[in-house]
Amino acid sequence: MSESDNQYMELRREKAATLRSKGLNPYANGIVPASTAEFINQKFAAVDAAGLETIDDKFSIAGRVIAIRAFGKAAFLQIRDRTGRIQIFIQKQKLSEEQFEIYKLIDVGDFCFFAGKLFRTKTGELTIAVDELKFVTKAVRPLPEKWHGLTDVETRYRQRYVDLIVNEDVKQTFVRRSEIIQSIREFMVGKGFLEVETPMMHPIPGGAAAKPFITHHNKLGQDLFLRIAPELYLKRLVVGGLERVFEINRNFRNEGISIQHNPEFTMLEFYQSYATFEDLIKFTEEMISTVSTRVLGASEITYQDTKINLAPPYARYPMKEALVKIGKVDPEILTSKEKALGYAMGLGDDLKSKDEGLGAILTEIFELTVEKKLIQPTFITEYPTEVSPLSRRNEKNPDVVDRFELFIYGREIANAFSELNDPQDQAGRFQEQVKALYRGDEEAMHFDEDYICALEYGMPPAAGEGIGIDRLVMLLTNSASIRDVILFPLLKKKQEQQQSAHLDEEKA
User: Does some domain include residue 347?
Assistant: First the structure.
């Protein structure tokens, strides 16, 4: 913090002390305004100056002062509440001497209560002529310099509360996020799904290929894993007779951070009995287009200056066909592990799957050559069985599974498949994952004996899907980074915090 910031804070603390000396609490309570900015602005939008003069009613409002233009014995203030903003007019002759002295203690950032009649200024702006004011909360820390356009990314993400104060469009992004999630919830309930909650601490990590976070329960004396996916618990519920279930959940994956990845993220995951992945293709198209239309008023959107049409139907390609037609990979490359491995190494990638089978290598080639080109909504199907340990094998070709991933603007938005409900097949897949785990694959799944037990009681044929809420919100709010749609994204410690921690360690 700069020396000037300290000086400003000291001045504000002195004003708080002055309020106390007057017998007023600078952090008052029990103040309830009768109106909101939105109510006043909407109700009197069409009333002209002459019409307002005939209204004897007083209106009260409370909120944060965001601008002050003082003219000695008068001032115009802008105040913002949860619904919007409205102008306030202060005039010494309309207030008691004590209340005018209180007004002079107001700074930008403070919360205040104002009451009075409405009028229009010479420029036509709807304004409250204050004849009563109360101090609500003193902001002892001033807003950042040039706060009307705060763009410093470090400050915006680390101090989201400041970001929300000074950037109205940021607030609207998170309002829209809430609307999107609510619309999804209404869509799911309307389709007969039951919303449930499953554990966030698991004795065995599972449900996705990812490195988990580990914690420890002292009383039980055992390690637990933060949820990487709710899949295996939701399918246990399907076994138990809850035939359509969904959860809007927080997941945790110990992976890198990028504009598309945050270690803590939100997903919609759902399971439908007596459905296949083909059914979920149509379901997904309907859901995304419906949510877009409900929230944005249209199924065609603009994302990062690119027009994207979310109206069904979406393009579909089997993975190998996409590799050839979109990735421009020679079909001969797809025929053997040796050829595929050589091609993948030639792409200059530090190949994660070089010790795996052909399916894993082709999947990685797909990620490198095709994904980023899938701008319009596109379903990719026929994923290799090898990289799909929880998916049902295709009955005509057991080397692939009945699965799709949905890509929009080069990003995976959804992953779905017909569920594997054969306990013997699932046990074999788990065993292959355990082998990969022993080979050093930190993202491989563990053997979940209880889940196999559940399947042995019988699970009806079903299809399930996970949709990344954060990425969908990015798309529907035209946000370039996942950090722009997560209120408090995970960040590295500040340098001074790291140095302090290092000094503490040395002292210890």
Answer: no
